[in-house]
Amino acid sequence: MDRLLSRLKETERRYRDRRDPRKKAVERLRKKDFIGANSNEELRARLSHLDVAPELTESVGTRSFRMPQRPVESSTRAIIDNVTLERILASNDLMPISYLALGLQKARSVGRIHVKDTMGRRLGFGTGFLVSPALLLTNNHVLESENNAAGSEVEFDFELDLAGNIRQSVTFGLSPQTFFLTDEDLDFTLVAVTPKPDREPIEWGWIHFVDQDGLLVKGEYVSIIQHPNGEAKQLALRENEVIDLLDNFAHYTTDTAPGSSGSPVFNDQWELVALHHSGVPDRDDDGDILAVDGRKWDKSMGDHRIKWIANEGVSGRKIVDFIKRASNLTAAQKRMRDQLFDGPPPGEQAPSPVVPPPGAPNVPGGNRPAPGVATLPTFQAGGATWTIPLQVTVQVGAPHLAGLPTPLPAAPDSGTPAPVGPVSATDDTDLQQALAEAEDARTRIYYDADQDESDRSEYYADLDPDRLSRDELFDQLHDLLKSTHTGRPRYRPSREVYPWIDLHPDRKLRSIYSGKAFEPEELIREDFRIEQERTLQLQELMQRESGLTPERMQEEVDLLEAQNPFNCEHVVPQSWFGKSEPMRGDLHHLFACESGCNSFRSNIAYFDFSDFEEAVRTECGKREENRFEPTAGKGTVARATLYFLLRYPGKVNDPEELPADRLSTLLQWHADHPVTEYERHRNQAIFEKQGNRNPLIDFPDWAGEIAFGKGLG
Question: Is the pTM of this model over 0.70?
Answer without folding.
Answer: no
